[in-house]
Amino acid sequence: MGRRQDIVAIVRSTGFASVVSLAQHFRVDTSTIRRDLDRLEQQRLIERTHGGAVPVKSADGRASSETRHRAEKAAIGAAMAERIHEGQTVLLDSGTTTLEVARHLKHQRLTVVTHDLRIGLEIAKRRSMHLVFIGGELLPQEFAMWGPTSVQQIDNMRVNVAIFGADTVLDEGLYIRASYELEVKRHMRAIAAEAFFVADSSKFGREALFKVFGFEEFTAGITDDTLDPIRAASFPVPLIRVPARRTPESETAIDDAAPERRARPERRATVDSEAGPAI
């Protein structure tokens, strides 16, 4: 049972583990690993996917990610949507904050490209907008498509603006928890003339394993005004801070991002929402 416990720990820490890599790690046959994964899935400790396994998410885990920091994400989404011009082609990354960007788009002439099912359904409601949906394989317990089919479709496109979310924002750039999203995100960035990132203040300073982008890839980022302004000014790209209309419930949902709100030596003037340049 020790090996199976270790497998669960690896899957939970990395977000994805392939059969081949696990077999090499434990020095056993791939058939042995497949039996282990089958058994662990029966015990609801992992989720099998093509070629490996991902962590199991609780039934309410997905819902909580959509409702946590809702006011902040809505304000960020509105601010980003205002900076998109009529007639542009916009690529929206998967995520709850980019979903808020989609919800706040009021344009009459816009092409939206996405690999997120929720964003696709949101844009499909807008008769005036053109939706291009990126196909592929649906990530387990997620709403995003991925895989070689997705990459091939992305590589045949060109967009004006790409807007990315992140699991974590650190001093070195944007990070995600699972490596299987790296390829799709990087190919999406490669087809965009410019890119922006959107992340609420709770994402700053969290732990994550895989760096997906450095800040040199972005024109600017948008977050909420809970992030310390001196901390925001320390990043090498403009970080636009927008106020959120918080209810008492949303105030209690702000998690312990306190270490990232401590003052640090100021290196540049903070870009506030009123001064944010249009795209």
In N-to-C order, the SSE pattern is HEHHEEHHEHEHEEEHEEEHEEEHEHE
- Could you say which overall geometry the principal axes of the C-alpha atoms support? globular
Q: What's the number of helices?
A: 11
Strand content: 15-25%
Low-confidence stretches: 59-64, 247-279
Biggest β-sheet: count, sense, barrel? 8 strands, parallel
What does this molecule look like?
- This protein is of the alpha/beta class.
- The chain folds into two domains: about 1-55, Orthogonal Bundle (Arc Repressor Mutant, subunit A); about 65-275, 3-Layer(aba) Sandwich (Rossmann fold).
- It has eleven helices and 16 strands.
- The chain has helices at about 1-15, 20-25, 30-40, 60-65, 70-80, 95-105, 115-125, 150-155, 180-190, 230-235, 250, and strands at about 15-20, 45-50, 50-55, 90, 110-115, 130-135, 135-140, 145, 160-165, 170, 175, 190-200, 210-215, 220-225, 240, 270.
- The protein has an eight-stranded parallel sheet with strand order 6-5-4-9-12-14-15-16, sandwiched between helices. It has a three-stranded antiparallel sheet with strand order 1-3-2.
- α2 (about 20-25) packs across α3, α6 runs parallel beside α7 (about 115-125) and α8 (about 150-155) packs parallel to α9 (about 180-190).
- The radius of gyration is 20 Å and the shape is globular.
- Mean pLDDT is about 85; it is low at about 60-65 and about 245-279.
